[in-house]
Amino acid sequence: MPTPRQISVTVNGTVYESTVEPRLTLADFLRHELALPGTHVGCEHGVCGACTVLWNGRAVRSCIMLAVQTDGTEITTVEGLSKDGELNAIQQAFVEEHGLQCGFCTPGFLMTITEMLDRNPDPSDEEIYDYLGGQICRCTGYQSILAAVRNAIEKKKAAS
Amino acid sequence: MKPAPFEYCAPEVLTEAVEVLEQNEGDAKVLSGGQSLMPLLNMRLARPEVLVDLARIPELDYVREDHGALVIGAMTRQRTVELDPMVREKHPLVYEATINVAHPQNRNQGTFGGSVAHADPSAEYPALAVALGAQFKAVGPDGERTIDAEDFFVTYLTTDLEGAEILTEVRIPALPDGAAWAFTEVARRHGDYALAGATSYFTLGADGKCATARIVVFGVGGTPVRASKAEQAMIGEAPSAALFASVGKAVLDDVEEPQSDVHASAAQRRAIAGVMTERGLADAARRAGIAI
Ligand code: FES
Ligand code: FES
Known about the structure:
Helix content of chain A: 25-40%
Oligomer: heterodimer
Bound molecules: FE2/S2 (inorganic) cluster
CATH architecture of the largest domain in chain B: 2-Layer Sandwich
Structural class of chain B: alpha+beta
Radius of gyration of chain A: 16 Å
Number of helices of chain B: 12
CATH class of the largest domain in chain B: Alpha Beta
Largest sheet of chain A: 5 strands, mixed
Order of helices and strands of chain A: EEHEEEHHHH
Number of strands of chain A: 5
Number of helices of chain A: 5
Distance between the termini of chain B: 53 Å
Number of strands of chain B: 14
Structural class of chain A: alpha+beta
Strand order of the largest sheet of chain A: 2-1-5-3-4
Strand order of the largest sheet of chain B: 4-5-10-6-7
Shape of chain A: globular
């Protein structure tokens, strides 16, 4: 039995001290240990993007990252997006533009778009395609997701 | 999916990482960005006893210039390379290769050195390294050594690194002045592993004819393939669409039997490598303002 490791990781602003098995993925850590099931698990090998979370502000696949690798770092999951029960601009835009149908892929899209707009509030089409290209949706159709991105950009501009 | 159990260590100094590898030779694996290794672990295609995470060794993370060459610490995230304005401005071929590596979400985590040391024959960085004549620094139990890119890649997923050696730095010479360059690949979807691709550069002499040419194709063998016959076919010729087409054909003679798999047959891969070479050369000329 491998030696469990002590980790301290900040998730959505809360510091968690945990003892984890080295082989525990970040996705499973969030879902099973921290009871944050908003991060979805689709392919479990880094392809679909459903499990995307922010790691020190960067969008990464939590299914191909180990919980032990995040010791001392900061994670944001989809649960960290709304404030006081209010959807944020990106989430609201998804509602308005029908950016989701079953919603399985949505947490990953939201986290990816969060990084994109943090980096550049006014991304080019090329940038948007590059980011969204890393996320797979099997039901909505990407046009309404694109519309949600553009809506979110406008909402954020109006708010600033 | 769960990886099989393993011990994990994240040393803060390089020599300690080398020691752990040496003590567990054959049973230990280096974890850098994990974008290739973690899927293999999840699917239990790899079952190391020990994982040695290099992410806590601060001196492996840097991008700098040295006498015009680009020097990258092995643990530098691909995204850091991509977002570095100096890289984009002065080492455009490195930038172009980088944005072809998987997706931003993978590049945020994947490292430059990890991709090189994993040595997937359809990966971008190994081809880039061979094209630009990069040099790799590795540290092992017997100290440090430097390996040329062309000697580094041995075959599929196999490099010249010894079991307890760790890749620490990649040194990439700048393109020659005024070089026209290109990086092109075909993947089923943008960001997927390439079926095949090509990277090239050339320079023109005062007479308007090709003075130097470098062509490397990938995804068509166990390692990136230097297309020497195709390079020769360019030297002394004036760039033209007809020349690029014949160079693209010459590439087929440089490529031995590529792998056939569910993604593409051997014949398809060879054909793609030729077409990517031709299109890349045309892209390169266009970008450099060379009329063809
Ligand atoms: S579940 Fe992580 S990328 Fe698909
Ligand atoms: S909304 Fe169903 S997979 Fe995207």
